[in-house]
Every structure is written in structure tokens, then in C-alpha cells.
Amino acid sequence: MKNRIKELRNKKAMSQSQFVQTFNELLVSEKMKPITVPTLSRWENSLNSPTDDMWRQLADYFNVSVSYIKGEIDEEYLESLIELAILFIFPEMILTYGEIELDDDCKPFIVIGILSQILKQLGYEPKREFQEVYIKAVNLAGDPITKSHLNDFEAVVDKFMPKFQGITDNLLKAYNSL
């Protein structure tokens, strides 16, 4: 299994030495033992593996999940989530989920739920990512009615955010059984 330490370091355009220097500052502030460039190199090449505590520090540093930085993302699950999201994009199509009709009014919330699971798989915090997009949407909205509608939309998403994984997993089971 190939981890993503080198990939994430390269995204920050940092050499191994630069990364070790800044990461060690974080480690020292957390009262943890600093690392060396050879240690980082062994981690990046999967010759050695960081401790669980060090994985958490690395994930926090890069602002990703531990499973993401370790390279443990389930790609089949991601593909299924993307297929499910595409299904809910089709307009004028009413789907049923148990006794509930999932019409066009429900679809944006379901797609956000699916996207939140994709974001989790990729190592992002869905609520924070949604908030960033929401702020941009409000800034794009020119009139007060649209801004009010966006505020209502945000309130519903905030309410259901903790339930999205269960809802998405149940919809995925139904979809996969077709």
C-alpha cells in the first residue's frame, strides 16, 4: 500500500528538508520527537511506517484524514457514490426510497449527502467544504430573495449533515441491488 506523504508534500511545493523543518516545529510544539530527512524518505517510500500518533500529526499538518494520507481510500466505494450522484442529477425523474418519493426538491440534499461522503473518502471535512461553497454562493447571489433561499438551504443541510452517511449508504445499497 502506497501512502500519500510525498504527493501531499509535493502539492505544497516543499523539499524534504523544508517539510522536515516546518513539520518538526509542529512536533516540538506538540512535545513530540522531531523527525529527520532520512526518516521522511523511508516513510515516503513505504520502507518504514510512522506511528499512529505520527500519522495523526501528518494528517493534521496536511489537513486530510489519516486514511487518506495512508492511502486507504476505497476507490470502488467512491465510484459507486459518483454513479449514485449522477443518478440524482437527472431532472424530472421521481425515484422512490421505501415509501418516500425523491422528487426534484429532494435531489439537491441527497446529492450534497453523497458529495459529503465523497469528501470524507478524499480526506476532507464535508461541513467545512460546504461552508466555503455556501459563502461563495451567497456572494454570487445578487438579490435578497436568493440569499434568503440559500440561508434556508444551509439550515436544512446543517440539520441533516450528521445523517448523510446513513442515508447515502442505504441509497447505495438500493442502487447496487438493481
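the 2nd protein, sequnce then structure:
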Amino acid sequence: MTPSPKKPKQVLMFGDSILQGMNARFSSLCLPVLLSQHWNCDILPQAMGGGSFDEHVIDENLPYTPDVIVIMFGCNDWYTFAKTNEEITENARAFAEKLDALYPDIPRYFISPIWSATWQKSRREGMCPYGEVHDYIQKGIASMKNTTLLRGFDLCPHHSSFLADGVHPNELGFQYYANQIAKAIQL
């Protein structure tokens, strides 16, 4: 068996269940596969359901040299883990700082949470509206070089027909989201 040839670009991605492909009926229709086709690159997805801005998930000894890093967190920070809005900011900052220490010259793209059909029903006491999570991530990473924040709300349609369960994209949603990310991040 011969390994497939290495693609011209290497992308490292961090994320939660959306990046993992939760609810995609076919693995070929989840974000890493779709984006690797758009960008003609190899992607190493570091994704786990329930993932959040936790700098401890960044492997300091990872034998992989990316050309670009994409980070997709915020939903679980807001919904479950962060006790305050400022904690989202601090956790995003710590995550960005660790990436900066390990990959100082590598472009990094953070993507804030996408629209969810359930977010208005799930608002937690003392937390900002879900659509404002972007602003708290921005505060945490604003001073970082080589770092761009994309507004997830702008990358997915605000309609439940693109979602499998009100939160996670379905096949159509993943395809739309991948197209929008590929337009926003040119490799």
C-alpha cells in the first residue's frame, strides 16, 4: 500500500463537535474533508465533541508543521464551561498565546460560533447573548499578530434547514459552511 502524496499545504484545525462532523451521515461531508478539497491541502483536525478554548489540548510535541491554523471554538464555552463572558476572553487569549509561542509565524484564523436555532432558548444567566460571543473572543485575541477572527454568524445561513439538530450542520449546512470558510480563507 502506497501512502497518498503529500498536498502542497498543511492545515491544523482545532474545534468542537461541529469540526468533528457531529451528525454528518457521511464522513466525506464533514468540514475537514470538504475544506481539504477546496484548498487542495492536508488537514489535521484536532476536534472533540464538547471542545472549548483550553490551551492544554494543544500538543507541544505534535510532529506536524502547518502552513495555516484554523480554530473553531466558542459555542461550548458560552453554553457550558465559561462562568462569565470575561472567562471566554481569557480562555481565548490563553489559547492564542500558546499557539503564538509554538507557531509564531503561522497565520491563524479563529472562527466564532455559527448561528444556532436553539441559542435564544439556551441563554445562561449572566452571559452575553450568543451572537456576542464573537466580541468576547475578539477581545482575547485582538493583540495577537498573524491572527484573524471570522464571524461564524456570517458564514452559515440563519435557517434550521441547514442544521441537523438545531446546533450542528447537516450535510447541506456543512457544504455551505465549508464554501464560506474557503472563500474567507484563501490558501
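The radius of gyration is 16 Å. The chain is about 35% helix and 15% strand.
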